[in-house]
Design brief:
Number of domains of chain A: 2
Distance between the termini of chain A: 44 Å
CATH topology of the largest domain in chain A: Rossmann fold
Largest interface: A-B, 33 and 33 residues
Strand content of chain A: 15-25%
CATH architecture of the largest domain in chain A: 3-Layer(aba) Sandwich
Number of strands of chain A: 16
Helix content of chain A: 25-40%
CATH class of the largest domain in chain A: Alpha Beta
Oligomer: homodimer
Order of helices and strands of chain A: HEHEEEHEHEHEHEEHEEEHEHEHEHE
Largest sheet of chain A: 7 strands, parallel
Number of helices of chain A: 11
Structural class of chain A: alpha/beta
CATH superfamily of the largest domain in chain A: HAD superfamily/HAD-like
Chain lengths: 307, 307
Amino acid sequence: MASETAPPSRAPPRKLTGKKQEIDAFIDQFDTFLFDCDGVLWRGSVLLPKVVETLEMLRSRGKKLVFVTNNSTKSRETYSKTFAKFGIPVTVDEIFGSAYSTAVAISRVHKIPEGKRVFLIAEAGIEEEFDAEGIPHFGGSQPLGFPDEDVAEHCGPDPTVWAVVTGLDRKLSYAKLAMAFGYLQDPNVHFFATNVDSTFPMPGRLLPGAGSCAAPLTLMTGRTPVAFGKPSLAMMDSIESKYKLDKERACMVGDRLNTDIQFGIQGGLKGTLAVLTGVSTEKEILEAGETGDGPDVYLDCLGDLLG
Amino acid sequence: MASETAPPSRAPPRKLTGKKQEIDAFIDQFDTFLFDCDGVLWRGSVLLPKVVETLEMLRSRGKKLVFVTNNSTKSRETYSKTFAKFGIPVTVDEIFGSAYSTAVAISRVHKIPEGKRVFLIAEAGIEEEFDAEGIPHFGGSQPLGFPDEDVAEHCGPDPTVWAVVTGLDRKLSYAKLAMAFGYLQDPNVHFFATNVDSTFPMPGRLLPGAGSCAAPLTLMTGRTPVAFGKPSLAMMDSIESKYKLDKERACMVGDRLNTDIQFGIQGGLKGTLAVLTGVSTEKEILEAGETGDGPDVYLDCLGDLLG
């Protein structure tokens, strides 16, 4: 009886060996590979081994590549320069960032009404994507227009404010939090986040992530933002729609179990591939497999796909 | 049987009438009155009616008065100037603020070791109280000593850091949060808060409170700070010890159910008195009474104690 109600079981994570036959069989299952970037392609400012060659090999076999990042501080245009710096050929259209995902959701799915605007706790990446989608915004990297200590005079409700959007904001201030809190006390004002990653990994250390900029607002209002980054299904829906993705022929490649691999599993992709060049360790991957939260396969590094 | 396991019941909150006899009977139960300040004595910049006369009447009847505030931005010395501005006679020793409570707990209860220091996300009030107790500190209102954007180079573990203390910090910055997060990743570093009030009431509006400055750290580390403000029992213990308080002859007076009145009830004081000049409404007070969380008695305003 118990087995009838158990969730469909997933096989334990399997380490791909270097055998050409096994690797080819794995690759041949998919038409599209979605890649997390930091921890998979590079680590901080260091390009990981044989990444350029591996992506080139996948392209030569006709695979579509999509680069999916929760980094909300850069627009797709700006993020493409990071690829260029590492010598990785990429087009802007192949990049799908949480800032872009948020902009598209606001303009095309939620359809912000005429005459309304968005208050931002975020950096320039979101502003560039909002400008491209024609979404009026204020806050963010722009001066507030008054001294921070006068915020009490400027943080009431505002009928022109339709939403508050939080991302990673390394210029976070009490004044911005006070203004956002003022707007969010109106339950009609939407509360969105590019992503709610608690931390922002840098080489050798962790810094506060976008979720840390939303946390005070959640404490004050009791409201949780709708997030558009991994592992949110809203991001998968946007990707599916933009790239005409056949999920049965797609694989998510990432280094973090709780964002990348969850994103692939919950998003209903046929495959998930973890690499050990980022956050999650082999031990964590095997443990996650015991609860059905592990990847299908894993590799020491992406370059091992070359065999 | 059920009645044997039920908690001791508390009578529903009772509104004190203006009858001299009833008011005298209430006052005569107590030797000490603990007062919340904002919402009880004044509201923002406005002194509430007959406050000076009421406090004078209590003093003339030999009552000891203690003013208990969660406001961590002012030292007792600085806070006494607010009383002077309103024309309320008070001595510094009658004021018990969360900044002072935190300083006393760190120096006398937790006994910070020689050569160690505290990183502050807080304002000058805590710094003054820490200086008075001889507690070494950095951060807070002091410059970090490097540009904020270089924080990644300055947020590692530091063996001299013994604790992180958060209070209300209207100069909160990403750099301070990143540094605190760096220290708190070491489980041996204490995590303290002056108080965890989510909001900071101002006339006509709410601003982010001290709890909002701690919330990102809780999200990132999974750690909850030990708080020394109302309704923390640590604050009641400090008050009991400093003033040789007989709880059976003490009454807490406040305007907020979830801080002031809870503080009195959980702290085991004989009496609790709510006033309707602040945050909690009569409806909320009566509803709280149904779950045993209401005050013993309430009044429209403190001045009604004059009869």
